[in-house]
Specification:
heterodimer; A: about 300 residues; alpha+beta; five-stranded antiparallel β-sheet; 15 strands; B: about 100 residues; mainly alpha
Chain lengths: ~300, ~100
């Protein structure tokens, strides 16, 4: 298994409840997954959105093989409503449970049973027992319901700090309250709605990638004058990494060169799926890269 | 003119790779010498997506090792391996 998601919570809870764990030993495809589910007659599974998307595209016989499933827990990125509707139609006996969390939070913060979602489709649900959620303004004040701000949480699962990194810990942890770096709002009934991120974090196929890490390596490629990356919506991956590059005058660089060079320095899930070349990066008034406009500039210059 | 199984496999991969390549392109723009990762930008997830479709299109169950994108460097590597796989599968059926 090559991804984390909420397994610390999920797998411990399942075994504590007397369940038996079956781990998929190799690559996930709808077929390998369905073979395992039918072999052990699995009743619950935990997956990331890319897996749900692949499952939703598979053939009907796959659904017969996984008909023992009663609960499908998922999270770690956005999932389209079409994918969830397709799965519900084909697996009517299985409850879909959306979750939201992050490693630093323990990790689970909210859950939403899809059968109860109703008008709250698109929300990530309410706090799990023991977790408290607040939405705060940039100066740390709690904002009224319905207003977007940073999601700040506390609870027994919140980390005590980053290992040997007091500065990073102090930046996110204050008196037991964790700044998640995610933006969202709470409605009057306590349902959490996500609205973006404060940090330059890209979640691609369930795995976290810090934009700055990829950018450092991009700038180290001979011929690259400047570079930035951003997360672009992708049906299968949730987000795909898009690199926007400014080439030095006289240098000759292709997307294949960039990929080949990065492949020797970065793990495969951190490699940009898309590469665009532009004359200059968009910048804010104070000279910082304007990440919100990267996609627009890339699309314009790529024609 | 009859189409050989090899031609069918090549045509199928050209068409599908043209869709999953980044940026997507015309099937004629996919060359057998193209590197799957570097020239076409096929990442591990795109590769799995491709092979899931291949299994369905040709009615095969590939061994797990064959689903590993790292196993193939170029389009030609992939096509020749899958052509061999199909030929073997046909022999078994004929036996």
């Amino acid at each position: 298994m090559s991804y984390g998601y909420c397994h610390t919570t999920q797998l411990i809870a399942e075994t504590d409840a007397g369940g038996t764990l079956a781990l998929l030993p190799g690559i996930f495809t709808p077929r390998t997954f369905a073979d395992l589910v039918s072999a052990v007659e699995a009743t619950t599974t935990t997956v990331v959105p890319s897996m749900l998307t692949l499952l939703a595209r598979s053939r009907w016989h796959t659904y017969e093989q996984v008909s023992s499933l009663r609960t499908i827990v998922f999270g770690g990125g956005p999932v389209s409503l079409e994918v969830l509707d397709a799965l519900r139609a084909r697996l009517p006996k299985a409850e879909l449970v959306q979750t939201y969390g992050q490693t630093e939070a323990g990790p689970r913060v909210t859950t939403l049973r899809w059968s109860d979602a109703g008008v709250r489709r698109g929300s990530v649900g309410r706090a799990v027992p023991g977790m408290r959620i607040t939405i705060r303004s940039p100066n740390g004040e709690v904002v009224p319901s319905g207003q977007i701000g940073e999601i700040v949480v506390s609870g027994p699962g919140v980390m005590s700090g980053y290992f040997n990194d007091p500065a990073a810990t102090a930046a996110v942890l204050n008196d037991g309250w964790l700044r998640t770096g995610d933006l969202g709002s709470l409605d009057d009934d306590g349902f959490l709605w996500l609205a973006g991120r404060l940090r330059n974090l890209i979640i691609t196929a369930g795995r976290n990638v810090i934009a700055e890490e990829v950018e450092v390596h991009l700038r180290g490629i001979p011929g690259v004058a400047d570079a930035a990356v951003f997360g672009e919506p992708d049906e299968l991956r949730g987000e795909r990494i898009h690199a926007v590059i400014v080439i030095r005058p006289g240098a000759d660089l292709t997307a294949a060169d960039v990929r080949a060079s990065l492949a020797t320095r970065l793990a495969s899930h951190k490699l940009p799926r898309c590469v665009s070349f532009v004359t200059d990066l968009p910048r804010t008034a104070n000279g910082k890269v304007d990440r919100a406009r990267l996609g627009q500039v890339a699309a314009k210059e790529s024609g | 003119m009859a189409t050989s199984p090899d031609d069918r496999v090549i045509a199928w991969f050209r068409e599908q790779l043209a869709k999953v390549a980044e940026p997507s392109r015309d099937p004629a723009g996919v060359r057998v010498t193209d590197n799957l990762r570097e020239d076409l930008g096929v990442d591990s997830l795109a590769f799995i997506e491709l092979m899931v479709d291949f299994e369905e299109a040709f009615g095969l169950r590939l061994d797990e090792g064959d689903l590993l994108g790292e196993r193939y460097c170029t389009v030609g590597d992939l096509v020749s391996h899958m052509t061999g796989y199909l030929a073997q599968a046909c022999e078994v059926v004929e036996d």
